[in-house]
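Ligand-bound model needed. flavin-adenine dinucleotide.
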Amino acid sequence: MSTQHDYDLAVIGSGPGGYVCAIRAAQRGAKVVVIERDRVGGVCLNVGCIPTKTLIRSAEVYSLARQAGDFGVTVGEVGFDYAKVAARKEKVLETLRGGVRSLFKANGIEYVAGTARLAGQHRVSVAGGEGEAELSAAKIVLATGTRPAELPVAPFDGERIVSSSEVVGWTALPESIVVVGGGYIGCELALLLAQFDVKVTVVELMDRLLPVGDADCSKEVLKSLKRRKVGVHLGVKLEEVKAGKSGVKARLSGGKTLEADVCLVSVGRRANTEDLGLEAAGLQADERGIVAVDECLRTRSAHIYAIGDITGKIQLAHVASAQGMVAAEHLTGRATARMDYRVVPSVVFTSPEVASVGMTEAEAKEACGGKLKVGRFAFRGLGKGLASGETEGWVKVIADGATNELLGLHIVGAHASEMLAEGAMALELEATLEELAETIHAHPTLPEALMEAAEAALGRAIHMPPAPKKGVS
Ligand SMILES: Cc1cc2nc3c(=O)[nH]c(=O)nc-3n(C[C@H](O)[C@H](O)[C@H](O)COP(=O)(O)OP(=O)(O)OC[C@H]3O[C@@H](n4cnc5c(N)ncnc54)[C@H](O)[C@@H]3O)c2cc1C
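Prediction:
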């Protein structure tokens, strides 16, 4: 691409945004270098998506083993060894880190360990174990991600007041924990720990858990936390946390004080952009550290792109990767490459899982002036739900009341994360209720609930009694 620079592309950060971008650019012929200051794979692979889901799987196996008797299976005494749970997770992470490293190698991507900083429009300085070096690149992608946001009333000390990064690294569990923040990370970790018999209390400022999701989904997560004896305080502010030798005392608005071994603060993420030398390239971040980009992921300097969590769009790994691919294609010459955030699936890996794509019911109501068709179907109405003992939860489909086009799909239940892909595809293809309902689904499977929910929205679900006619009691 360029002869006057060391590289065609320098990618700063190797999370799901950066590493995917680097590979796609290399596939398209670019000479690429990736600079990473920590472990390859970013937050997602090391302290985010993958470690949490690996730990959650162990918690599921533990729960299932305790329910073995319900299936007629006899097991001995059921217990767990958390050091082994943590060791299994580490093995998974190392395998995946090795996978990314070998993909870099296979695609001829150079990997440099060190902390990168913009030193000019095309120059990047790298400080590492062997001192500081400088390299030049025709194009640069900033993919530096985020770190846990700190609360002034509860500064992290890594032991008593911790972030999610410490929790996923534990090799032994505390007996009790206060989780501050009922967003998806707080809820996932609260349920994970409760499943491993930790006494958990969640404190959330808003009046519901998962405040940005569909309200019906929030109610299900609240039920599931309460069923596992997790204390939940909604609409409550954390005033102060005092950490001592034997534990923490968290004072809440209203005067209540909670005591626990540890306090997890999980109240959002802060972008890693303040030490990136943005000013050297004529760029700046906003007060949250977010770098503004256009739909092709270009910053104000057209040859410098930003992707992933630092763009402040939707802070999820698959969004970072999608942005990485668009940026890579655009900067290697596909001028039409654009980001489209219309259909972005999201999953909360609680138990049961919560999976959503498209609009919430409240958003759809506003978009359609209240004219909606909403269909629900519960997993307890499915043969597969009963056969596998997974009857908790439901599917809700939301469609435009005039055109029947699908607007949103929400699933609460076992394997909701896997079932969501069908909903995402349906929304991407602008499918209607009829198209979802008339797609033949294999039997017996849990995704039959998607078809049934679409039928229900059309007033004709087979495996559900008809809604009472108006005027008939
Ligand atoms: C507990 C937890 C669970 C999560 N679970 C999910 C999930 O289930 N699904 C999902 O989609 N998302 C999940 N996420 C969010 C997901 O991890 C992020 O959206 C994703 O990692 C963002 O990718 P990124 O490429 O923008 O940055 P990151 O993954 O944050 O990677 C950025 C990389 O840049 C490096 N870096 C930073 N500054 C420099 C510098 N100056 N020089 C060199 N390197 C630098 C960092 O060390 C890091 O490796 C979770 C997050 C957390 C914290």
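The chain has a mean pLDDT of 96.
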